[in-house]
From TrEMBL:
It comes from Hibiscus sabdariffa (roselle). CDD domains: AdoMet_MTases. Keywords: Membrane, Methyltransferase, Transferase, Transmembrane, Transmembrane helix. It comes from the Eukaryota. The keyword RNA-binding does not apply. The chain crosses the membrane at residues 109-130. SUPFAM superfamilies: S-adenosyl-L-methionine-dependent methyltransferases (SSF53335). This is Methyltransferase domain-containing protein.
Length: 139
């Protein structure tokens, strides 16, 4: 998806990886997110809002897989869904997300690295899992 498909994005077109398996490499994502402020892979929240609001209540606990530099957690928070955990393979994406959310005063949104999350919270309970386009292929 290029900037024309992602209006309002601060995305500078990133070079695609040399193979699909590179998407599993945190280093690819760290490099990409070091140079990219915001990008929505499919569409922004406004396209899914009516579907999400019909299913998710404000007191729900939400886990967003592969948060990257998306603004989904911020949009959910604005809609009253404030217990959100967003995780990603990229430590760069997680750190930038933490900074962005703290600067906006959002409490209850917890960015974290995927591996650390799985190790620290093996019995984590979540009511809603949001995943739009995370792919774990072994090709």
């Amino acid at each position: 998806m290029d900037t024309a498909q992602n209006p309002g994005s601060d995305h500078k077109k990133a070079d695609p990886p040399k193979s699909v398996s590179a998407y599993l490499d945190p280093n690819y994502w760290n490099q990409r997110f070091s140079n990219e402020e915001h990008y929505e892979w499919l569409k922004d929240y406004s396209h899914f809002r009516h579907l999400i609001q019909a299913q998710i209540k404000p007191n729900s606990s939400v886990l967003e897989l592969g948060c990257g530099n998306s603004q989904l957690s911020e949009e959910l928070y604005k809609d009253g869904i404030t217990e959100i955990t967003c995780i990603d393979l990229s430590s760069v994406a997680v750190e930038k997300m933490k900074e962005r959310l703290l600067s906006k005063g959002y409490e209850g949104v917890f960015p974290g690295c995927l591996l650390k999350f799985l190790l620290l919270f093996p019995s984590f309970c979540v009511f809603v899992l949001l995943e739009f386009d995370t792919r774990f292929n072994n090709r």
